[in-house]
Batch of 3 targets.
Target 1
Amino acid sequence: MVLELQKPRPVWQIMFSTHHTDVGLMYLITSVTFLFMGGALALIIRAELFLPGSQIIADSMTFNRIFTVHGTTLIFLFLLPFASAVGNYFVPIMVRYKDMAYPKLNAIAFWMIPPAAALIWLGFADFTWYATPPYSIISAPGPAADMWIFGLKILGVSSVLGAINFIVTILKCKHPDMSMGQVPLLAWSFLTSSLIVLVAIPTFAAALLMLLTDRLGVSGFFNPAMGGDPIAYQHLFWFTFHPEVYVLVIPAIGMMYEIIPRFSRKPIFSHSSGIFAFVLLSMVSFSSWAHHMYATGMSFTEKTVFMIGTLAAVPASAMHVFNFVATMWNGRIKFATPMMWAVGGIALFFSAGAGGVVNSAMPLDFQTHDSYWVVGHFHLFVMGTIAFGSIGFLYYMFPYITGRMYNEKMGQVHFILAFIGTVMVFFTQHVLGLYGMPRRVFDYPPFPEWIAMNQIATTGAMIIGVSMVIFLINMIHSSGKGKPSDLNDPFNLGGKYYWPYEAKNPHH
Amino acid sequence: MNQENQTIYRTSSARTGKMLAIVLGICIVGGVIFFSMWDYWTSYQAPVVAKMAGETEHAVKPGVVTGKHIESNLKFIESPDFKTFAFNALPGEEGNNPEFKVKSGDEVTFSVKNNGKSFHAFGIVADPENVNNVLWKSAIAAPTNPIKPGQGGSVTFIAGAPGTYYYVCTVPGHALQGMKGSFIVE
């Protein structure tokens, strides 16, 4: 299963190819590049917050611009393209088809990302990744804000095209001998998350157009001075972006479903409960968007509905966690780097989920709304769960892509430092939120508790930064000079892998 | 994929180097554009800001100032039950909310006096239901800092583009209760 090199070709042939592994490689390189760029911005933010007052950033607008692009980059230019990279590599192989269903559409979906990224990065808008009106309409300076709107529009189209491709590939192009129940869970995760994308994204696409016409002054959908309603934007935004959280987390769980049985040397405990939980998660993802908006003056009935809708995600998530634990139970586990990332990701998934359950209770939500609790909570999800699953899977794919083995020691050091750093940053931020520190601030009053906790968080962030440098060196060095991997068993797990998609199609 | 009868191609240092060179090249070119134009991208306000301030539709056209000067006095008054507000006289009486007709470019001075018991403020607007967008810097006081009972003030401004406008009390609700009159620019 060499994914990159069927035969040596010039680099430009890989860049402009429509073959699924080549497009996957382009997605992968792009997304990892943006991981480092967005991560660098995070370090600047944390360094600024190490002490109260202005240290390295001159003014609050620059700070706003930095954290806006930090969020936009890591969500839309790292996590989503990374999931697409994994899907491109693995989905056609798993459903035993020669390529994606629409190879050219696949390449188009990828090539929409660079112009969108250029718009987002050159403009460096300042209205946070929510672009909440009325600020985004009447105060956010252009052309940065308009560039961000166009960039996100392009990325939305790219996501929808990618989603169509995955759905058609899985449903229509899978091998006729394979029933849907036999489709591996990683492919199932792409099917369900792609369905969410198809339903959720158009709402935000419409909201973006309304935002643009509001900025031009020809409409007043969200402009209170023209009779519009800013809360309507929040509904449209969160109708897309609460499900979007699941679009990110479902493929990450799918990746863990790939890693954990391999390294436990056991089949998945329950394949069907995994499928069931994916489908359930994709449905309940649409029942909780307004829990981001408890503080906007909704009626008690509405809040109750969304509170229950939020809690409905718990059983499906718990099914995944139980499935992972039961798979590892009594397995001969090999704690190689991918397995460490997957297990760490499950632990942090559980922590983030526990915080989310507490937070979905409205009384506590009023305390934590717009405080650092929220920052800690969602970062624990996107970093602790989704990025951990993704990075683990990158290590897992590495020998298959390059034909070379990464440095195992450096991978483990990377994991340990990143895990410690993540806990230091995001657990601390939960407590910081309970101490009342608001999010999106550039300066804060010198309360000793706030300073202490901000310094713990910043130290943690720097530890993650160091681990990421180790990661970068490992990837670059090992892809050129790493020792050749045995492609039948790169991780020395011995025996036969459990390859569900090769059950009727063994090494041919 | 049996390794015995298939050649395995592995990534070489040269290919990794090429890939890094491409990525770094894009980042460097992008970085130069990024830092050289850092301030440009946040240099202008959305068009809606100017529209909301009325600067585009109702603006004074340069070079049309007529030199003519018009002065007028207005009094804020209220009915005893505070249900009806008006200028100069209550509705139905002589002199209620007088209509003004001026030429575009005329210099207009309004002197107002608060003869009522509540707070008021003055301004000329295009839409009497939206009293926030006072045109041509014609405001006397503001809802946040209004004219108190017994006090007054005056303002001089140049009438802008032709159209039908309204002089109103800019305190929210007062214009709807009757404190508005036509101000026609020809």
Target 2
Amino acid sequence: MTLAFAWLLAWVAGTAVYCAFDTRRAAGWWTSAIGHGLVFGMLLAGAMAYFFAREDTAHALRHAWLPLVVVAAIAAALAFWRRRAPVTTVVAKPRVERWKIILLAAGFLSVIYRGYLALREILLRPTFPWDAWDAWAVKSKTWFLLGHYVPFVSAAHWIDAAGTGDYTGPAWSYPAALAWVQIWFASAAGAWIEPLVNLPWLALWIGLLLAHYGQWRALGFSTLRAAAFAYVLASLPLLTVHVALAGYADLWIATLFGFAVLAWMRWLLQRDVNQLALAVACVLVMPWLKLEGAVWMLMSIAVALACEMPRRARHVVMGALAIVAAIVATVGHIKLPLFGLGWVSIGWHSIEVPVIGTLSIAFHAKALGGAFSSLFLQPSWHLLWWLVPLVIAWRWREFRVSRALRCLGALLVVSFAFLAFLFLFTDAAQWAESYTAINRLVMHLVPPVITLLALLLRDVPLPREPIHTAQSSAPHSSAA
Amino acid sequence: MMRRVLCAVVIAVVWLIVLGFAAGVVWTSPPLPSVKFPIAARDFRVVQGAGVEDGSSMRVGSVGDDGSALQAVSIDHLRADDFPVLRYRFDGFPRTLELSFFFRRADAPDDVQPAVTVPWPDGGWQSIDLSKVPGWRGEIIEMGFSEYPTPQLAPTSVAFQPFRFDDIELWSPSWRGNFASLLTSWFTYTPWALLSISALGPQREVAQAVPLVPLLLFAVALSLLVAAICLCWSWRSAVFRSAVALGALWVFLDLVWLDDLRKKHALTETVYAGKPWNERAQLVPDQDLAQAAERVRSYFASQPGTHRLLIGAESKYVFLKLIYALLPLDVAPLQQVAHLPWPPGEFFVLLYGDSSWHYDEKRAAIVDTTGHVVGAASGAVFGGGFAHNSRVEPVFENGDLRLYVRRAERVPSP
């Protein structure tokens, strides 16, 4: 009962917060609200536990439910106050052939089936994957079983700080947002019951799929096409693995990055400022989930700002970046304060990230084989990485006419360039050769990549010029 | 009509060539094996565990002390090159066990060639291409199977269920043998592994075939090209049909994955379904670690106050797993602080199994392989003008588990 209350409250609060953002009920609005609501709700519950239950983590629900109710109430009031008339554009619905409906139903059933398998897997098994018990659940289990929060510090600090009550561990510097989400659900379960603590991963996956479907609908996709792309996303094996073997942070990053890109696209295509705020919120949450989230956040902000700049200003910024590169080239290194990562020292031969360590720079040819095998040979992604270049080559002209697509393309190019640099030119190459990290980091970009493919293959043309007013926007939105 | 028939024939030939390449078919070999070398399971002898004859089969009813069973058969100098395909059949083989194949050669009769993991016997015949197994050459004088709990996954205490070992066959080269091996390799069940969270491809089995995804994609692309040329498709029609074909291929791959996921999950159901959480929490693959953690936890439960515990083990997996199992004790990996000077105060040190550290009774210290005292700070001056010497004493020892306590002895500075 308590567990059901914890879930319901989190979901309602998350949905209310989403509704406060999404004031205009476009097509797919309710699936979008449920999907975002599930994810936002879990994160909000974790945040409430962090703020209100640090001294009594074992009863986090008891201390944090009321603040969450208040947040939900305020968000609901805001959503009601800010609500706008739903989009009433009536578009003739094309007749959908029976065979397409049958295919759609079969795809839907297959998604339900894998969701069922993942649910059973989570509910039956103690935490299984390596980093789940080595990194992501260490803080939550410690805090919950201790009954209160204790700081995690580096091993060197820990050994010197006898009597302070500090803890340490290999993942002491990892962000703790997911730990607080787990504490919320552990306190609702009344004990450290791993299946119940890991259940949020299934909700996350459901949220990812529903929100993407809803946002694609809002971007003008037909039901059939949005559902087809939702199936594509749901069918990717590695995503399902991250649900079934719950406990890693990568699916959270992928989901938030996917949400941010969808909202950003709605801003670019429909000039809906609420969606821009939503994108910013999603991007800002990412560093609290996983360190790589800080990298994606910085890149997203940089590309989004560049997209909004006039051409001339963009050139000035590029020039400034070139000067920074020249300084690095001549001085040998430069130190930059990067949010979530600390003072990052970049040099010719190494990059030093305080919370990660030093990565020496050299080309690792062997990692190319690992990367190729991971993306193109192994069954982790079905045909995705074969189809991406094909679709881009086929629909290349779309980039020329749509600024939104160019912006999304630029973000993905920069992101993949970062991954290529990381796995081919730094010590992280060993994780590509051993297949231990490359797929998981690539997974962060998968929902945005699917959105790019969906936009390239959509059945309604994109606006050819940027639209500057909300009134004239949403030319393709149709009544649900 | 003729054009369509021709197109279908060409496409069939394309698939035959592509699949034949993937299967490693020697085109000059016969379609069916000219020689088969069957061995009934009852001819095998039980080396480990227990088994009884059941008609021509062998019913394996229990495992040895280490949780594994092993059956072997001596054979009369069989030339490995003449028999590149092994087929085997089991009935009721438990999901929780893994199967490996081993053999002995005449040129090294005292050495068992390294055992190789083979596809899980999913009912009916399974085939593997032995020519891809390292060491399968020369004359074979013995071969056999070993069954043991699936590594990283199956708890030893519940892994074994009785099963029936039916028979094996060795086949001479043939198309059928090669294609059967290909099918087994592509569609066999592979259990979850720690690597599954990062990549689904690399598995433990040997004799892996060409990966399914690129090969089918290549065959589909070639078929589309042939069809577009033979049937004079327009550009628009070619694009549409290609999209449909790729969509169908995606769905096919997804069905293969769903089947694999279903089978992976079956192991989880076998081990955990119908049991309460308290029982399931104990059913971990490394039950020895769980028991060790329980022993340590009960010791500290009887010790008042808070304690700091450092864990050392050779394997990273072992000490990290112990740390997680011991939470919320204040635990840390010894590896990370062994080189640092430790301040005065009490530290417990837990060493598990083989490790880079051991207790030196004469020096009353934990030392590493170079003889360096872990946490050494002797002579170092700490606040208060006192130097300190530390002394390590054993607390208890239980199998692989050794617990020590290090206490500082404060002595007046000279």
Target 3
Amino acid sequence: MSEIAELELGYRRWLRWYPASFRREYEAEMLGVLLAHARADQRRPQPIECLDLMSAGVRMRLRPTVPRSDRSAFTAVRLMYVGALVELATAIIIVATAGDIKSAILKRNRGYSEAQWHAEVAGSLRPLVVGAGIAIGFWLWMAWANGRGYRWARIVFAIFFGTTTFSMIHGLAGGSAAFARTDLVIGVVLWLVQLTALVLIFHKHMPTVAVSR
Amino acid sequence: MQEATFLILTSLAAGGQHGYGIISDVATISDGRVRLRAGTLYSALDRLRIDGCVEVDREEMVEGRLRRYYRLTPAGAKQLAAEAGRVQANATAAFARLGLTAGVIG
């Protein structure tokens, strides 16, 4: 294999970090630029080039493809990232307010042994923290999918909002917010973020493909 | 607006350029301070195309490889002018507070 063919193969490997649609559009052109910039005796991509291709490729996979001029869509995507951040804060607060949960358990069950309240705290905390982790992933997934203008993502987000609304009403009716008032406040904040994002993504239809490729 | 994006738009303000030309031109404009790499350049160009600031001017084959020329759109020119005005206003304010005339440093 010639030096240039070996170098081109190396660049092609690193270009796989980009989404397929981006590669179809730009790969041939980028290879031309990369090879034109290479030293005469270069056989492999330089580490700095690999890092640039990898980081740009990952960014391309994650970033929204809706035009910035579509302000409602762009704001909705940002709000979804805010939702993920609030969920993260929730997980941290849940762990930080473990003492409140312990006090509440001890207050209700004065005869509990240490092993019993340990088990009850763990039983209350684990599902909340795991739930927050899943919710963070879900918010990020929704931000990514809505940012790429997928129509199905709007429907999934609407179902997500409906489920959250139902679970919040159900939780309030069942008195599950009795342990910590903070949980209730965060729940309402998240619900408002969801509501605003939902209104924004349905306010103006996002184009399914932002650039004709 | 990020500096790389500003410099890419500035490079295209004088006329259509291909990827390699933009990289060289940005290095010249920034006096060698900004060295764009292919990954960064094409991510920025893709974003600028989505936003309607840049469009493909023409394509040609050179030694069996695709070479695509990009040009600024009227919307891109407007955005560049607005950003240049903002940067200039900030720089003027900074020079005024330093008691310097614009462009006289050191």
